[in-house]
Amino acid sequence: GPKVLQIPSHQIIDMGQMVTLNCDPVSNHLYFYWYKQILGQQMEFLVNFYNGKVMEKSKLFKDQFSVERPDGSYFTLKIQPTALEDSAVYFCASSLKAETLYFGSGTRLTVL
Amino acid sequence: GDSVTQTEGPVTVSESESLIINCTYSATSIAYPNLFWYVRYPGEGLQLLLKVITAGQKGSSRGFEATYNKETTSFHLQKASVQESDSAVYYCALGSNYAQGLTFGLGTRVSVFP
């Protein structure tokens, strides 16, 4: 089936630094999402991106977070500066019609 | 807000036995949300197992079935005879607002032993 790729699979970073998580969505998809899963908790919606704009974001999507997809390349989540509570697995998803989502394998972010 | 509650894992079952994973939901933003089961096999990303968008309907895939029950607000996942390859983490999810994507349960880890 369609594949969403996330790069890297693991990232370790010092608190206060910037980090960019990359997602290569399914090629003809139009809707892009980021979810966050803290160990032992459920996956939670962060943000939805469509037509070059953030459509919806949750309260977890702090001011330090930003997303973009420049020129149809990677869909990225940038956190600047990072905080300890940002340690989690971040999942990217894409969708053609904002209904069935296709997920990547996640990027495990550890903030020290 | 919306929420999903599912069987707490881990669940251990022998090959060829039956499996049921309970899922109940609460959707405050829409009366009849779309309901999904996603699965994550070891080392892989989440993938859609089945979905049902109409109350009262049943979805099925790979021997799994789930019926959308609006009276009990449930969407239990069942399989009559599991195989070792069904070992995975199963997530129940609902979609009530397309912009927000999906609301997930905690996931249920299932281990099938030969």
What does this structure look like?
The complex is a heterodimer of chains A (112) and B (114). With 112 residues, chain A is mostly beta strands. In chain A, 0% of the residues lie in helices and 50% in strands. In chain A, the strands form 2 sheets. In chain A, strands 2, 4, 5, 6, 9, 10 and 11 form a 7-stranded mixed sheet that branches. Chain A has a 4-stranded antiparallel sheet with strand order 1-3-8-7, with no helix packed on it. In chain A, a hairpin with a 2-residue loop joins strand 5 and strand 6 (53-57). Chain B is globular, with a radius of gyration of 14 Å. Chain B starts with a strand and ends with a strand. The mean pLDDT of chain B is 93. In chain B, strands 2, 5, 6, 10, 11 and 12 form a 6-stranded mixed sheet that branches. Chain B has a 4-stranded antiparallel sheet with strand order 3-9-8-7, with no helix packed on it. In chain B, strands 1-4 form a two-stranded antiparallel sheet. Chain B has strands at residues 3-6, 11-14, 19-21, 23-26, 34-40, 47-52, 58-61, 64-67, 77-79, 88-97, 101-104, 108-113. Chains A and B meet through strand 4, strand 5, strand 9 and strand 10 of A and strand 5, strand 6, strand 10 and strand 11 of B.
